[in-house]
Every structure is written in C-alpha cells, then in structure tokens.
Design a protein that fits this description.
alpha/beta, 7-stranded mixed beta sheet, 12 helices, globular
Length: 323
C-alpha cells in the first residue's frame, strides 16, 4: 500500500491516521491509574461528549495545497470495519454493492464541518452508512468524539441490536426507516475530497452526495478552488449510482448560480423539480443544520438545488425545471 503520494507504507495498519481515527480522549479509569471493575469502570471509560467551543478553528483552508493525507490505493484498502464496527460485524450479501466484509457507504457529506447534518441523517436513515469528509483536523476530531459519545449512549440505553439480529428493514425509496438509531452508521475522516474521492469509493457506490454551505471563494482567481467544477463533477458522477443525488445548499446566491450552471451544463446530471424537493425527507435536514440555523437567525436566505445522475447520458435531455 502507498502512504501519501509516492511513498511506501512501511508499517501495516500504521496507527490512527491510517484508519481515519483521530486520537480520542476518554475519562481516566481511576485516580490511582488502575483499571476499575464492573459497571463503574465501564461508566468511567465512556467517551467524553465534546464541547464545540474547544474545537474552534479557522474556517478556510487552501484546498489546492492540502495534499499531505493518507489515502488508500483502492477502495478495497479502506479500513471500513474500523469506521463502522457494528455494521461490518454482520455482512449484508443481499446488498447490490456490498463488499465481502459487509455494508458499504452510500451517503457522503463533503466538508461535513461539525457534523450536524451527519448526525441528523444517521438518525433518519439508520440502515445506511454515511461518511463525512472534512479537511480541518480539529473539526474531524470533534465529530469523531461526538459520534463515539452517541454510540455509547445508544449502547447504554439498549438501542444497539446484536449483530446477528441486525437486518435492514424494508422501506420505500426516499423514506427514512424506523430502525432505532445506534449511530454506528456514521463516521468522519480527515481528508481532501477534491483529491482522493475515487480512492475511497467504488464506481456507482454512492446514492447521496451533500455539499452544504461550501466556501464561496469570492475572488475570481480562487474560483478553481470551488467544490463544483467540471473536473470534480466527473469524479462525483463516477462515484454516484444512476439516480443518485447531489444536494447543494448555500446562502450565497452567486455561488448557487455557479453550482447550478455547472451541474446543468453537465450531461451527466438532471435537475430535480421543486415538487420533488418538497417531497424529499432530506431537504428539511439540510435546512436544520448548524449553519442553516445560523442563517435563519441572521434573517438570511438559503438556496437549495439537487441534481440526479442520469441513467443514460446519451439520451435527449428534458428542459430543466424552472427555479
């Protein structure tokens, strides 16, 4: 395997960075340093629920210079079992895109921030695996600690089913399911989605891709840093299944015009109508994220658009729906 660009990975499973795990703190076991026994020890070892005020960091990063990341040589080399130990304990051979180990990630939040959308999606779709990709390490550490704390709370309340009993419920397409959320279906990694998406995901693996309040990069010279460009749309289309959806939301009208313009001009995507968006259970979750609530408190406007990957890019295209 290669660790970083052109370098040979000299250690097998080389620690926390390779598995996408930031170094996570837990409560001390005891004052004397000895391991407590019984339920008291389990309680003291519970993951600490993080406070966002201790994980503040600068909002912007130069994505073009951010290349010093571990990345797998292929999606088969991603340590998914360390990200989703509950789901991967029980393989799902009935899944059309399942690996030999089990389930696969279907939802990806690019630039997941502090993970408010991921947590909401994990509760609404507990049978779907989802991954957040964030370029700021301090923010990723917060999300991972938050997920671990939620998993511990769910396990303590008895919400986590045994692996043998973990069978996906049947539900209609586009609807959330009624399975009790255990938050074992959500994780976040520190990486640059503008560089290494095909290294993590197989062709036509994803069903939903989220781009929420991305950096607008207002200066013309920085437009190449925007998350929606013709080159990146080709990579997103590669990872999306036919019928898979890209969701875009922002409070910057000029940026929304940019994203809609590029997605509309791409023959691989069709824009979803307003009626379709109104019936989509994901849309209210986009508005209720931390950033969405902040925009509402400031009486700002939010702009939402969604595009589905076409089943036949060579077929004639219908006229795009009105805004």
């Amino acid at each position: 395997m290669l660790n970083k660009r052109g370098r040979e990975d000299t250690e097998e499973n080389s620690g926390a960075e390779k598995s996408g795990m930031m170094e996570l703190t837990t409560r001390s076991t005891s004052k004397s340093g000895e391991q407590p026994s019984g339920s008291k020890g389990a309680e003291e070892e519970a993951p600490i629920k993080p406070q966002k005020k201790f994980y503040r960091t600068r909002a912007h990063t130069n994505v073009l210079n951010a290349n010093d990341f571990w990345f797998p040589v292929s999606p088969a080399c991603v340590p998914w079992q360390s990200y989703f130990p509950i789901q991967y304990a029980q393989p799902d051979p009935s899944h059309a895109h399942a690996s030999k180990k089990g389930h696969v990630v279907e939802f990806v939040d690019i630039g997941c921030g502090y993970g408010s959308l991921l947590i909401a999606l994990a509760a609404a779709f507990p049978s779907n695996l989802m991954l957040g990709i964030e370029i700021r390490p301090k923010v990723v550490e917060y999300v991972q600690k938050r997920v671990l704390a939620l998993r511990h709370e769910a396990a303590s309340s008895g919400a986590v089913p045994s692996p043998a009993a973990d069978t996906p419920p049947t539900r209609k397409e586009g609807e959330g399911d009624t399975k009790v959320p255990d938050y074992g279906n959500v994780w976040a990694i520190h990486n640059n989605a503008m560089r290494f998406m095909p290294n993590f995901f197989e062709r036509e693996q994803l069903t939903k891709l989220f781009i929420c309040f991305p950096d607008p990069h207002f200066k013309r010279k920085n437009h190449r840093k925007r998350i929606i460009t013709p080159a990146l749309l080709a990579e997103f289309a590669y990872t999306l299944r036919p019928g898979g959806i890209i969701y875009c939301i922002t409070d910057v009208s000029e940026l929304m015009e940019w994203m809609v313009g590029h997605l509309t001009s791409c023959v691989l995507f069709d824009r979803l109508s307003r009626e379709t968006l109104r019936a989509d259970p994901v849309v209210p979750l986009l508005i209720a994220t931390d950033e969405g609530l902040k925009v509402q408190r400031n009486n700002g406007n939010m702009f939402i658009a969604a595009f589905s990957k076409r089943f036949d890019p060579a077929a004639p295209r219908a006229a795009p729906p009105l805004r």
